[in-house]
Design a protein that fits this description.
By secondary structure, the chain is of the alpha+beta class. The protein has 15 helices and 28 strands. The strands form six sheets. Strands 5-4-8-2-1-12-15-14 form an eight-stranded mixed beta sheet. Strands 17-18-19-21-20 form a five-stranded mixed beta sheet, with helices on one face. Strands 23-27-26-24-25 form a five-stranded antiparallel beta sheet, with no helix packed on it. A hairpin with a 2-residue loop joins β26 and β27. The two termini are 52 Å apart. The mean pLDDT is 95. It binds zinc ion (ZN). This is PDZ/DHR/GLGF:peptidase M61.
Length: 577
């Protein structure tokens, strides 16, 4: 049987349309069904990508074949003998890392937005022809993807248009593709090739510096998981890794894949040639890269059992995102300090920022990180004005849970064991070689995670682990940080107004008879002290209301965290290279 064959072409870049075909050599005898995913792994929300399919038709042996729509994302072709081809257009105008985007400057797509899956044939290998847009204007376009070039005639050259190949549908939708006139650099980390691609104009981009810094971060991570072999994780399926970044004025975000990541960042965050200062923005960019790269192990290979295999037609529930997103968030900054990209002082400041951020949300007293993980589909990913009161982030609190566990294990074993050992054990048992041909793919369950913590640490951590992940009590971080020479002291929280009775959507018109001009609210409120009161005028819909206003400090605790002179040895084992 021939591989399932896809072809994709930017049909009209100005109209944001990709033309796509899929040909199935041996369609189901009762009529082949096709579907498009409703969500993309890494972003736990139903997005209904099929709504962007504009025109669709089927044919076999040059003749039209009847095609019936079954639901919002599925079609069934009438029974045919021999190869069946579906042709359709996809509207691509979503400038994010999650879908597809096409205009005259570049094209980007995730397979989950453009490639229909032949139902029941998910395990078939696929070939993909990626075509250049027609016209002289596009003569300089290249292709960036971690997808492997097909061998032989018609096979794409590295970074070129032409034929690519994948082992199955899961791989097809796990290699996003960027095409255009991008800027590209490369480096080797522990011997493995990494490409760094930037789309969008960035004057004076210091690409060498970006590559130098990423190399340090990638090597620190590879050595964390594979201290002996120093083997990069993606070598089970790909020879190289691709960081692809879309640069805009204020973009931020990333999505992890098995051998690449799609990122968005702000232009001002990228370093310029000849300017060596380490800006906050550049640290943020490196933190994002570090986060997505860590996912190459944690969630792309070590996976929750519910994700093996991914079921992309509906929500897939797991209580474990605190491990896959929270621990990844813990290690993203930790890897920056361990690889020497930020100082110990800067790292400790980042910890304080995360901690204070979690304390500001009242939702932490109502929702556990396990519950937040499970309900990600309808709560974390669909936040409304009530979110701070009802939701805790499995990213930020999850990273503090990782910190609490790491420090507990280190303190109780005198640094002989740590969270690093837990991650390595997860990797060895569930992740290593996940995509190697013939590998037995299995995910990890909550019970297995709990058992592994005890086994690897030699401690009894069940009760602590449960209270951290299933409870809503405050984290005792100050006491945990102390043995590492890090002092956390409570500081006065920021002053805030208690705006009694003001609701989402209200228009605040005046405070004490003074109009609230755009951008002037903070200045206006700064004139008041704790305990002061004022009157405010508020429009709800089209009715004017007069409401009382009292000023008070935020009830949440706030901490200032500083590394002290002592206990450097304990700290060095944790934060040092
Ligand atoms: Zn993540």
């Amino acid at each position: 049987m021939k591989p399932i064959h896809y072809a994709i072409a930017p049909l009209q870049p100005e109209a944001h349309l990709f033309a796509v075909t899929v040909t199935v050599d041996a369609p189901h005898p009762a009529g082949q069904q096709f579907y498009l995913p409703a969500w993309i792994p890494g972003s736990y929300m139903i997005r209904d990508f099929a709504r962007n399919i504009v025109r669709i038709r089927a044919q076999a042996s040059g003749k039209p074949v009847a095609l019936t729509k079954l639901d919002k994302q599925s079609w069934q072709a009438a029974p045919v003998d021999g190869p069946l081809t579906l042709s359709y257009e996809v509207y691509a105008w979503d400038l994010s890392v999650r879908a597809a985007h096409l205009d005259a400057t570049h094209g980007f797509f995730n397979g989950s937005s453009v490639f229909l899956c032949a139902d029941g044939q998910e395990n078939q290998p696929c070939t993909i022809d990626i075509h250049a847009p027609a016209g002289e204007a596009y003569a300089g376009w290249r292709v960036a993807t971690a997808m492997r070039e097909a061998p032989g005639r018609g096979g794409a050259k590295r970074y070129g248009f032409g034929r690519y190949q994948v082992a199955d549908y899961d791989e097809l939708v796990d290699h996003p593709v960027e095409m255009g006139n991008f800027t590209m650099g490369s480096f080797r980390a522990c011997g493995a090739q990494h490409d760094v691609v930037f789309t969008g104009r960035v004057p004076q981009l210091d690409l060498e510096r970006v590559c130098r810094d990423l190399k340090q971060i990638c090597e620190a991570q590879i050595r964390l998981f594979e201290p002996k072999t120093e083997a990069a994780p993606f070598l089970d399926s790909n020879r190289r890794y691709v960081f692809m970044t879309m640069v805009t004025t204020d973009g931020y975000g990333g999505l992890e894949h098995r051998a690449s990541t799609a990122l968005m960042c702000a232009r001002a965050d990228l370093p310029a040639r000849g300017k060596e200062e380490a800006t906050e923005g550049y640290r943020t960019f490196l933190g994002l890269c570090s986060h997505e790269y860590f996912h190459t192990w944690n969630v792309k290979r070590i996976k929750p059992a519910a994700f093996v295999p991914y079921r992309l037609r509906e929500e897939t529930y797991t209580p474990l995102l605190w491990l896959f997103e929270g621990f990844t968030s813990y290690y993203d900054d930790l890897m920056l300090v361990r690889s020497g990209r930020i100082t110990e002082k800067q790292y400790v400041e980042l910890l304080a920022k995360t901690w204070n951020g979690v304390l500001r949300g009242n939702g932490r007293t109502k929702q556990s990180v396990a519950a937040s993980s499970f309900d990600a589909w309808t709560k974390y990913y669909r936040q409304d004005e009530n979110a701070p009161n009802a939701i805790v982030s499995y990213y930020t609190k999850g990273s503090l849970v990782a910190l609490a566990l790491d420090l507990t294990i280190r303190a109780k074993t005198r640094n002989r064991r740590s969270l690093d050992d837990i991650m390595r054990a997860l990797w060895q048992r569930y992740g290593s070689g996940f995509y190697a041909p013939g590998a037995q793919q299995r995910g990890v369950t909550e019970a297995q995670v709990h058992a592994l913590f005890d086994e690897v640490s030699g401690l009894r951590l069940g009760a602590l682990l449960r209270s951290l992940t299933e409870g809503t009590g405050e984290l005792q971080l100050a006491a945990l940080l102390k043995p590492f020479g890090i002092k956390a002291v409570t500081t006065k929280p920021e002053r805030n107004a208690t705006l009694a009775g003001i609701s989402a959507g209200d228009l605040l018109a005046a405070v004490d008879g003074l109009r609230v001009a755009p951008g002037q609210l903070d200045k206006l409120l700064a004139r008041y002290r704790d305990g002061d009161s004022a009157e405010c005028h508020v429009f709800r819909r089209d009715e004017l209301h007069v409401l009382p206003l009292t000023f008070a400090r935020e009830p949440a605790m706030q901490y200032t965290v500083t590394a002290e002179g002592g206990r450097q040895a304990m700290r060095a084992r944790w934060l040092g290279r």
